[in-house]
């Protein structure tokens, strides 16, 4: 009988720490398998420099992760129909009871980004690359853990899926670029989607923290009930999201300016060569 179907719900607790540690070890093993059996074989064929070799490995590992996480997260959104009802982001808050797929998704996300910390040592990352990677790893851990602990799993999931799609396109484009430097169309698609996702993130965050949660029927602070719907927490969460989006846009603008400067530098020698050729062609008839 369909009416007697039971759904099992889960919340978070101290036992999650042991579970996260276990899946962190699983992630370390999977990281090694992908590196040895996929990325190292491709690296031998491409004969990349040390700098490109390090970036290729980083993009290869992240591309696998983003692809898997995007497909998994999108399937959860489709099953739970979170996207069809935006009010689900704040309605019936706190969302302290999770279905298994949502809880397991967050456990795996936290475990993966925690595993990235020891991988900085295992992969012998260059010293100049460590601060950059350490920065985005810590941001992922803070934001995903915050959404999990503050019972904002619905909002976190909806924001993660499009973000992971954009990151997937970027790292896939970088992999194609390393194999053939003429393949740069993927970066254009990434740039357009990057801006759209930043706007989407800000819009949903302001809508949730500024309007939705402020008007729910049960505002208050209760660790036992998992209710963190008070003004300081809402302001803190919104500020964290806005500052992160601003930082990402700043990095994005600097990246685009750097690419534009490199493009201009590459065009200047070509113009000089064409000008010298034109002068020679003009001089040759006079010699005759």
The low-confidence runs, each spanning 5 or more residues with pLDDT under 50, are 1-5
What gyration radius follows from the Cα positions, in whole Å?
24 Å
Number of strands: 2
Q: What class do helices, strands and sheet pairing give?
A: mainly alpha
Q: Give the mean pLDDT.
A: 87
Distance between the termini: 99 Å
Q: So how many helices?
A: 7
What share of residues are in beta strands? Answer: under 5%
Helix percentage: over 70%
* H/E series: HHHHHHEEH
Largest beta sheet, briefly?
2 strands, antiparallel
Choose one word for the global shape: globular
Neighbour order of strands in the largest sheet: 1-2
What is this structure's SSE topology?
Blueprint: H1 15-46, H2 50-80, H3 100-122, H4 130-149, H5 153-179, H6 185-212, E1 220-222, E2 227-229, H7 231-287
Antiparallel strand pairs: 1-2
Helix pairs in contact: 1-2, 1-3, 2-3, 2-5, 3-4, 5-6, 6-7
